[in-house]
Amino acid sequence: MIVMGLCLPYLYSVKISAEPNLANNSKSATMVNVETGDVIFEKNANEKLAPASMTKIMSIILFMEALVSGQLKADQLVTTSLNASQMGGSQIFLSVGEQMKVSELLKSVVIASANDACVALAEEISGSIESFVKLMNDKAKMLGLENTNFANATGLPIENHYTTSNDMAIMSAYLIKNYPEIIKLSSTYEDYVRKDTDNPFWLVNTNRLVKHYPSIDGLKTGWTNDAGYCLSATSYNDDNKMRLVAVVMGCETPQKRSADVVELLNYGHSNYHNQLVLNKGSVISTTNNIKLLPEDVRLLVSNDFYVCKKKQDKEKNYIFKLELNNEDNNKVGMVIIYDGDVEIGRVDVNYELEPREVNYWLLLFRIMKRLFN
């Protein structure tokens, strides 16, 4: 079976061949390489299923976007609505009118899967859950998720609310790739909110694997009667420079869910590794232009670029082609990476130092110097 790489907006991927008999407790499962987007394993990957609280991965993406854009501030106080206070399920028991910082609410969502905290943040961003759900579905379309539809922000049972293990893997990888700081929260096993008050609340991570399986540091559990036990788990292995996301859906017990995830992650880290092809900050070219200051400008690679390979495969040499952009002033250009004649990826390049045009007298001096030399 040849499994195609994920359709992710931030990277390119190559083909990975995989035929293991894994995730037998799950209705659906997908495992991906976060750095490259490669699908290492899939089982019924496009079957539409209820995601339960894994839904919150998309909600968290939008929360992080709002923090980065400045729409939300970490120390901003959010006032709890009646709707948020009535969510039920996993919660931190917010009362109507209670105010809590965005950072505390986010911590409650990521660690303890708090439905009331999730709704409070969603309403703060969009004014209503209906408006926030539209943002969720718009983001799903932007990510190319063709088999996902959200009807709420929490994953509590509701009609016409579904996704697939493939789509959930894409969401999970996107969250980690774009907001790696989320791992600090998702790897926290226990913490408190309202810590210095008369009503402290103990947060315990719903993903027990972050405590009992050393390399797992996230990401999000889910359970309802309809969905069964679900989990999007991530782990990083420094030896093979690879972060994986394994998504399982529809397990009968939390033990079977954990067993499938651990089995998948062990398989991935044991059989694959990332070959670093381009280093972030490495010099790809030097240009010379007498109209600019400095005259010699080095072009640097903007991001690391990895290729996912089976461990027994030999490392390859790849071909790089530099393309400068003469139209978009905000983009210097890119390096296109080829495996033979096949393009496998693109990485932006930036100036080491932003050049500026020289004045008339300096330009004249440089011309005269070249003439005499």
Description of the molecule:
The protein has a five-stranded antiparallel beta sheet, with helices on both faces. The protein is globular, with a radius of gyration of 24 Å. It has 373 residues and is of the alpha+beta class. The chain contains ten helices and 20 strands. It has two domains: 2-272, DD-peptidase/beta-lactamase superfamily (Beta-lactamase, 3-Layer(aba) Sandwich); 279-372, no CATH class. The chain has helices at residues 56-69, 82-85, 102-112, 115-126, 129-142, 165-178, 182-186, 209-212, 254-271, 360-372; strands at residues 2-3, 16-17, 28-33, 39-43, 77-79, 99-101, 190-193, 201-204, 216-224, 228-237, 242-251, 272-278, 283-288, 292-293, 296-301, 305-310, 319-324, 333-339, 342-351, 356-357.
What is the structure about, briefly put?
The protein is built from 10 helices and 20 strands. Helix content is 29%, strand content 29%. It is of the alpha+beta class.
Describe the secondary structure blueprint for this structure.
Blueprint: E1 2-3, E2 16-17, E3 28-33, E4 39-43, H1 56-69, E5 77-79, H2 82-85, E6 99-101, H3 102-112, H4 115-126, H5 129-142, H6 165-178, H7 182-186, E7 190-193, E8 201-204, H8 209-212, E9 216-224, E10 228-237, E11 242-251, H9 254-271, E12 272-278, E13 283-288, E14 292-293, E15 296-301, E16 305-310, E17 319-324, E18 333-339, E19 342-351, E20 356-357, H10 360-372
Antiparallel strand pairs: 1-2, 3-4, 3-11, 5-6, 7-8, 9-10, 10-11, 12-16, 13-15, 14-20, 15-19, 17-18, 18-19
Helix pairs in contact: 1-4, 1-6, 3-4, 4-5
